[in-house]
Amino acid sequence: MSITGRAKPWEFRWRIVIMFSSLPLAAILFVTTGFTTGTWYAPQTDLYQQTTAALIASLGVLLRVWGTSALSTQRMLKLQAQGETLVESGPFAMVRNPLYLGTLLVIGGWSVLYGWQAAICFTVFHAIRFNRIVLYEESIFESELSNRFDEYRESVPRWIPRWSGIMKSEWPHMSIAAALSNAPFVAMTIALWLIAGPSDASIFFPAAVVGLLVCGLFLMTRRITQKERAGDLE
Fold first, then answer.
1. Helix axes 183-195, 98-111, angle to 10 degrees
2. Strand, helix or coil at 39?
3. Residue 42, strand partner residues
């Protein structure tokens, strides 16, 4: 299996689990290999690292919430890759994968707390992984949308936002539902700002867990509501 090739369906299906599982595993590895001092859940950091981590994560969570606001709830709840609709509004007008890019910025920003060497290794690992997943998703868009996706791909870059696209995209629209759907990333970013302020790094993982619980509860509620509505229509 080529690391730069297309992801398998199971990689897409388990992408979220793999991503969140990698955080504590990477933290343990960074500490045991000497990238940083302290404990895996509370590395020793300075204000420069803390502020940099929070700023990078803030940009990432902005992209994620903005991008999620442009998607339908039905699309967010599905576990399978789908190509029946092509979203071209919001941040999708300037970069094809704002959600993956936003995720990379949030978790990459967090890894700065463990040192620049750790941050580079961790970010590169997930950049390769996300690119594999994107190639898999794009293959589905190619087969289901054909010429329309080809036109979109030619005008909007995959990873690096194009300035002309930034100027064309509308002002960020942030919905409460999108924020709740991204609760883990929002919680992690808030935790990074608190680490740069009155708290220490030990709050990061508890905040991520709380965010996951909030997100899970919200999506479960939405799924139940949709099923009830579908039942009423039958």
1. 30
2. strand
3. 39
Per this entry, what is the length of the chain? 234
Angle of helix 147-155 relative to helix 116-145, nearest 10 degrees, comes to 150
What global pTM score does this model have? 0.91
Q: String of b and e for 50-87 (b: at least 16 CB within 10 Å)?
A: bbbbbbbbbebbbbbbbbbbbbebeeeeeeebebeeeb
The percentage of residues in the chain with a pLDDT greater than 90, rounded to a whole number, is 65
Q: How is the chain split into domains, by residue range?
A: 9-33+44-233
Query: Of 184, 166, 12, whose CA–CA distance to 103 is shortest?
Result: 184
Q: Which contacts qualify for 115-123: CB closer than 8 Å, 24 or more apart?
A: 115/30, 115/35, 115/36, 115/49, 117/35, 118/26, 118/30, 118/35, 118/36, 122/22, 122/26, 122/30
Neighbouring C-alpha atoms within 13 Å toward the C-beta of 4 = 0
Per-residue pLDDT tens over the stretch 175-229? 899 999 999 999 999 999 999 999 999 999 999 999 999 999 999 998 887 776 6
Q: What is the pLDDT of residues 40-77, one digit of tens each?
A: 999 999 999 999 999 999 999 999 999 998 886 445 54
Q: Could you tell me which residues are beta bridge partners of residue 39?
A: 42
CB-based contact 8:136 (threshold 8 Å): yes
